[in-house]
Amino acid sequence: TGTTRPQRLLRAVQERATRGDSESVIAAIDHFCRHQEWAMNVGDEKGFILDSVVSEVSPQTALELGTYCGYSTVRIARLLPPGGHLITLEFNPNYAAVARQVIAWAGLEDMVQVVEGASGDWIPHLREHFGIESFDFVFLDHWKELYLPDIKLLEECGLLRKGTVLLADNVICPGTPDYLEYVRKSQSYESHYFGSHLEYTRAEDGLEKSVYLG
Ligand SMILES: O=c1[nH]cnc2c(O)c(F)c(-c3ccc(F)cc3)cc12
Ligand SMILES: [Mg+2]
């Protein structure tokens, strides 16, 4: 036994970051991942692109698929407009437990709802359970095999509206070929690729931004 990597990441936040200061929480996680242990956060380079898309959309309702330790959750939530709210789905209860504490350390717990369970199980219930009409912004960062089935489910559940912005991490590494083909070929999406690098490395990766046209 001993600690897990998410628990060691949380300890680094609690030791290095200032309570209530989301920028210091982001910096503490980036420092941990660069100098202690690599972890699968979207990271600072792709995170800067994420910030610019979130700022442009300024979403009242946002959905994140894949919370992990809450790094991108904090990046998104700190940029939400007044009244904005972020729902983040996490399958792994240990990750969810760490993420809740990271989000609280950043002082963003009032704008974020961490929901435990499988995205495919939860998506059909988001409207009735959280009173969501549709999402303005969706960040896909969970399992590459679920990106395509989950956006099809979001479409079927009427949770996307004309102009909803989807942003997908890891479209090159580990890679989501079926998702990329779908959003780039479909008449229902306008897609753009932002080239970048795999978090904390020099390997190629990028984000795909896709606007739902209805
Ligand atoms: O499973 C994942 N879910 C969400 N995001 C990921 C990620 O950003 C990664 F870099 C990676 C990753 C893990 C190991 C590698 F060697 C390369 C990428 C995985 C995920
Ligand atoms: Mg990722």
Give your account of this protein's structure:
The chain has helices at residues 5-16, 22-35, 43-57, 71-77, 93-105, 119-122, 126-130, 147-156, 171-175, 177-185; strands at 61-65, 85-90, 112-116, 135-140, 160-168, 189-197, 204-212. The model has no long low-confidence stretch (mean pLDDT 98). With 214 residues, it is of the alpha/beta class. α1 packs across α2, α1 (5-16) runs parallel beside α5 and α3 (43-57) packs parallel to α4. The protein is globular. It binds the ligand O=c1[nH]cnc2c(O)c(F)c(-c3ccc(F)cc3)cc12 and magnesium ion. The site of the ligand O=c1[nH]cnc2c(O)c(F)c(-c3ccc(F)cc3)cc12 has 10 residues, from α9.
Keywords:
single chain, 214 residues, alpha/beta, 7-stranded mixed sheet, 10 helices, 23% strand, binds the ligand O=c1[nH]cnc2c(O)c(F)c(-c3ccc(F)cc3)cc12, binds magnesium ion
Structure in a nutshell:
This protein has 214 residues and is an alpha/beta fold. The chain has ten helices and seven strands. Helix 4 links the parallel strand 1 (61-65) and strand 2.
- Strand % is 15-25%
- SS-based structural class? alpha/beta
The low-pLDDT segments are none
As a percent range, the share of helical residues equals 40-55%
Form type: globular
What does the secondary structure layout of this molecule look like, with pairings?
Blueprint: H1 5-16, H2 22-35, H3 43-57, E1 61-65, H4 71-77, E2 85-90, H5 93-105, E3 112-116, H6 119-122, H7 126-130, E4 135-140, H8 147-156, E5 160-168, H9 171-175, H10 177-185, E6 189-197, E7 204-212
Parallel strand pairs: 1-2, 1-4, 2-3, 4-5
Antiparallel strand pairs: 5-7, 6-7
The structure holds ligand 7JU and magnesium ion.
